[in-house]
Amino acid sequence: MSVNDTFKNENMEGIAVIGMAGRFPGAKSINDFWRNLKDGVESISVLTDEDILNSAIDPAILNNPRHVKAGAVLEDIELFDAAFFGFNPREAAIMDPQHRFFLECSWQALEDAGYDSENFAGEIGIYGGMGWNSYLLFNIASNRNLLSLEIGQQTLLGNEKDFLTTRTSYKLNLKGPSINVQTGCSTSLVSIYLACQSLLSYQCDMALAGGVSINVLQKAGYLHQEVGIMSPDGHCRTFDAKARGTVGGSGVGVVVLKRLEDALSERDCIHAVIIGSAINNDGALKVGYTAPSLVRQAQAIAQALAVADIEAETVNYVECHGSGTVLGDPVEIKALTKAFRTSTQKKNFCAIGSVKTNVGHLDAAAGIAGFIKTVLALKHKLIPPSLHFEEPNPEIDFTNSPFYVNTKLSEWKTNSTPRRAGVSSFGIGGTNAHIILEEAPIGEQGEQGRKYQLLVISAKTESALETATANLVNHLKQHPNLNLADVAYTLKVGRRAMGYRRVVVCQDIDDAMNALQDPKRVLTSIQETSEYAAYTPSPADGLRDRDRPVALMFPGLGTHHINMALEIYQVEPTFQEAVDRCCLLLKPILGLDLRDVLYPKNSSQKQNPSKPGLDLRKMLGRSEEPADEATQKLNQTFFTQPAIFVVEYALAQLWFEWGIRPVAMIGYSIGEFVAATLAGVLSLEDALTLVAKRAQMIQELPAGAMLAVPLTEQEVQPFLSEKLSLSAINGSSLCVISGCTEAVDELEHHLTQKGLACRRIVTSHAFHSKMMEAIAPGLHSLVKTFNLQPPKIPYLSNVTGTWITAEQATDPSYWVKHLCQTVQFASAVQELSKKHNPVLLEVGSGQTLSSLALSILQSDRLVDRVVLPSLRHSYERQSDIAFLLNTLGQLWLAGVQIDWAGFYSHERRDRLPLPTYPFERQRYWIEPHKQTQVVAISQTCSPEHFQGGEAQEYQLPTNSEIVSELSLHSRPHLRNSYVAPSSELEHKIASFYQQSLGIEQVGIYDNFFELGGNSLIGIQVIAQLRKNFQLELSLRALFEAPSVAELGLFIEEMIIAELEELTEDEAQELVSVFTQNQQALITVS
């Protein structure tokens, strides 16, 4: 959190600024902007003749002595990441760059705040405005066919000011108020004011506010007029004696706001706090419509101070409107002085400045530029210099005012009060805005967090994923003192999960940087999505419906070990609470605390060996060390089975907390009791009692042995007898035979002599064999004492190898069969794969079921299977937590939605500003038609700024049939491969798709909507099809048949149906018209 080293806000009042994004002249980011400000950089460019002529300017303008070759240029205004936001190329090219920049900036501001709008629990509002439509005027209007009835509405939606914020709300799924604001130069600061009011009145819980202004003729220069507001020398000299005006510029900025109390409780990164704000209008209290009003400016400032409830002398800095005009500057200082003098007579204590000296006048974005500058100054505790101030304007009496112009980078010192600043913005037409800011309060120190952290990164494309990874590495290098736990948290909760995904588990910042650059440690996956359709908002309640399903597998005996999941027990409260509860319930039955058996303090087995890797002897079952006393005790069935149940049940509770909700479960042997308990067949108390007493019964039986053999069920049959039983079928060629120890020894010797690799299972008895039948009556009686319920979650039966039924689950006889009969694991896995194609997650110690399931699925040639273990093997020397987090990461890679709030439910984590999405911008631009030529430009600010100056003159073409210069873009990445049209009908439909979407190549199986189409564009396509085929097609046809192939078949069927109803002459005439249209299209193409 941005921390004030002196002050703490006690009353929780105010509006917190928690996120920022912007692009300004000379600055592609907020960091660039701050660097330029503190270094005193003027970002107003000196334009070349080539720049000016490339702007479609009449060459004669170069000889005009009043022409000023200067402009505050915003770079790359023609570039946009259309695919990211789901726009097709044609739609993007028609859209005003102000719409595009505002949309990108809004996304970045939310990410900077550490929020994904899809997963925010409250409502997010947005307030903003844009400058005049120069793109529409000079580029679109000169291509008259873009104003036709067919695409005129699309042009309107992409350019009109009215749709700036609502389009952003749609694309970002913002459901709070969406208000377009237009008050001239004060637009963006008024937007902030309105956003604050919306938050304070609980109309929304978070708000975006800002503005954008882009003049497509920003490199054309301007004509200076003596009575105008434009500078004669290309510099803005605010408050200086030489000040004669400003310089127009382009820029965009958006901030994210939240109620301070909410921001503090949710541990947002607070850059500054708005403690007071006010707006008003001059009315008629001035000499003319475009003139400023001293009285009304002063009243707006005084009202903001009153709302903040502070003394004026506690304000250390004011970011002025400061346009550098002869009239405006003195009026502004007099208004400020008048407002301050109501509470203080102190002189020259408050610094002032104007960002216009750096970046010029940004029109609708002017207020947000000054606001962001001031927030940054508060955050860094530095006041940037205001440029070009040498001698004060003689009309300004600084000596007797509270103010002085800050001309150098100054440390922002304060005494008994927090650092405070005012920001002013006054619009042509008289709408005045003033906001009071205060530095951010102290935040509570964050916790250290887990020893290991899971970092997740995602992007829309593979190249963007690589860029995002590199950007994160660079950020960590530049900020080595960040808490890695907060970095990991922000990446999870503050970023949208996209198709290209990457995860890594690491311990600290240095380890994170190394791991992110190590191909051996990072895991990457691709979740296939349509390039254009992927990020069009969907209903929030439908998100989980698109999750990859998960099935849980609970293993049985054989992989248990001392200190099983000990590290997880030590650091994960949910797991610990579940283990503690189970052990407390078991204590009266077992006669001891099972935790003393699971986690004995004097065990010779270390939880985290110093050397990572594998204990090969232990892995092969050839450890020379005899089992210690603790291991021998755990290996007793009376303790083994309850221990396995407890660990698996507790681990399932942890997965549930992390958002894993299974569509199905499989329990192997004792593991089925865990599945039944989670499904609601047994209560936890009854399940623990049943498992413990069942184990006690088994403990009293004669010892036995179990042997895994690489044989099919049929190949095993000759070896079965009264002494040997088929205990489990684990695969097409993998079974388990069990029985008395002598018989199993003989079988193992016999099969080994034949060259078959057999494996003895570490167990005390011959489970699922005839040796269990002796306790069947007692078990039946025991189960009858419990209240069995039908399962609420589907799971597969060990006995049948298919889905458990309510009758089976509630029948005591079933649980007797479960003890004595063969475990049909292979059949169960195959049955599950037919229904769900889930990720299989093993919930227990080791990876036995994972290996078996993979073998089963591979033998059935099933593809795209993900099988994951939760815990390491006992012989693996690594951290349980690191292993578990790696599995969690792989679940996310596979497309499983994780509940990150649940994952962090026991931690207090901070959101951090981290690198935002690396947009992959391409050029989408309509050039002005060559007949259009701007003859003269009086200024580069909006038309509202005219004060008797010359109007902008332009010439429109008279030929309405001019073909627009819209370039076609390459086919986007889709889930299906490209298949070229073959028939003439397919060629015709594909050409309509290409023209309407601006895509160079459309395949016959490409979905219109995945290509970036929408209902509005669909109407245009249907209109063309109706015209060419003389058919009564409706938009519904496109929704039902969105591909070229489907639509072609639909049209063919319509034509055939119509032909059957026509006379022979009518049919011949229709075919003739169809043929002519076809030939005309071929000729054009």
Automatic annotation (TrEMBL):
GO molecular function: 3-oxoacyl-[acyl-carrier-protein] synthase activity; fatty acid synthase activity; isomerase activity; oxidoreductase activity
GO cellular component: polyketide synthase complex
One Pfam family recorded for the sequence: CurL-like_PKS_C
Keywords: Acyltransferase, Fatty acid metabolism, Isomerase, Lipid metabolism, Multifunctional enzyme, NADP, Oxidoreductase, Phosphopantetheine, Phosphoprotein, Transferase
Tagged with keyword Nucleotide-binding: no
Domain Ketosynthase family 3 (KS3), first and last residues per copy: 12-439
Xref: Gene3D superfamilies: 3.30.70.3290, 3.40.47.10, ACP-like, Malonyl-CoA ACP transacylase, ACP-binding, Malonyl-Coenzyme A Acyl Carrier Protein, domain 2
PROSITE patterns in the cross-refs: CARRIER (PS50075), KS3_1 (PS00606), KS3_2 (PS52004), PHOSPHOPANTETHEINE (PS00012)
SUPFAM superfamilies found in the cross-reference section: ACP-like, FabD/lysophospholipase-like, Probable ACP-binding domain of malonyl-CoA ACP transacylase, Thiolase-like
GO biological process: fatty acid biosynthetic process
Entry annotated with the keyword Methyltransferase: no
Domain Carrier: 980-1055
Function description: Part of the PpsABCDE complex involved in the biosynthesis of the lipid core common to phthiocerols and phenolphthiocerols by successive additions of malonyl-CoA or methylmalonyl-CoA extender units. PpsA can accept as substrate the activated forms of either icosanoyl (C20), docosanoyl (C22) or lignoceroyl (C24) groups from FadD26, or a (4-hydroxyphenyl)-C17 or (4-hydroxyphenyl)-C19 fatty acyl from FadD29. PpsA initiates the biosynthesis and extends its substrate using a malonyl-CoA extender unit. The PpsB and PpsC proteins add the second and third malonyl-CoA extender units.
Name the record gives this protein: Phenolphthiocerol/phthiocerol polyketide synthase subunit E
Organism, scientific name: Nostoc punctiforme (strain ATCC 29133 / PCC 73102)
